[in-house]
Amino acid sequence: MRIALVQMKVIAGAVDENRRRGLALAREGAARADVVVLPEIWTTGYALRDVDKWAEDVEGPTISEMLNISRKYGTYIIAGSIPLRKNEKVYNGAVVIGPDGNVAAEYRKIHLFSMMGEERFFAAGDRRCTFNLNGVTAGIAICYDLRFPELFRSLTQEGVKIIFLPAEWPAARGEHWHLLSRARAIENQVFLCVVNCVGEHKGNPFYGHSMLIGPSGEVLAEGGEEETILYAEADFALVAKAREKMSVWQDRRPEVYL
Ligand SMILES: NC(=O)CCC(=O)C(=O)O
């Protein structure tokens, strides 16, 4: 399965420009891959005070155009996250679009990033999200969720072989980005597809370094700190191979942990 990791430059508050560029990059990726993934809140960036103004539902201009792209190219699109309006609340929400051009799943960020006051602007999600990716069970988490291994464990318990993580992660914590992403892949023996943005916010650069990580922690593709589309192959047979080689899952002792 060929994945396009859209590591785009996000400018806080420049919604029209971000949307125009994000859609163009998604079109480019969709022409060359089976799955396209965008970063976290890529339409608004960290203009958190304005997310209510810019929030859209799945019929809004961003997702409806993503549905057209996916229908035209027959690709899955994980439309990063956008401020997503649902039942009169605004969530930091990721929408998964199937190759038939319909919404296949929605994930609303569970762990809001209190260090930046996200909880003042978004409602928190309270549900995990898995979906069928061409016969493979896949899961989603968003950015700060990466610090909560329990979520990734539960997704693995549900049978996922790949977890997608759109992010807006700063260069200041680049080491954490690498360590946590690889640890989540290694401990669960699953693929992690982590897609970050580039650019800066109030003088603080975003880290980029989007990656596809294999189920033994191998970095199969990694971006730099520039806007780019990374293309990478996920061979899901590697999951069974990693688990045959080292039976971490069977060796767990859950009865002792809680
Ligand atoms: N947008 C985020 O969730 C940022 C998370 C982050 O910077 C961190 O966990 O560190």
UniProtKB/TrEMBL annotation:
Molecular function terms from GO: hydrolase activity
Alphabetically ordered keywords of this record: Hydrolase
Annotated CN hydrolase domain residues: 1-236
One matching Pfam family: CN_hydrolase
Superkingdom, taxonomy of origin: Bacteria
Keyword Transferase: no
InterPro entries: C-N_Hydrolase, C-N_Hydrolase_sf, UPF0012_CS
Keyword Hydrolase included in the entry's annotation: yes
Family in the record: Belongs to the carbon-nitrogen hydrolase superfamily. NIT1/NIT2 family.
Protein name, as recorded: Carbon-nitrogen hydrolase
Species for this entry: Sporolituus thermophilus DSM 23256
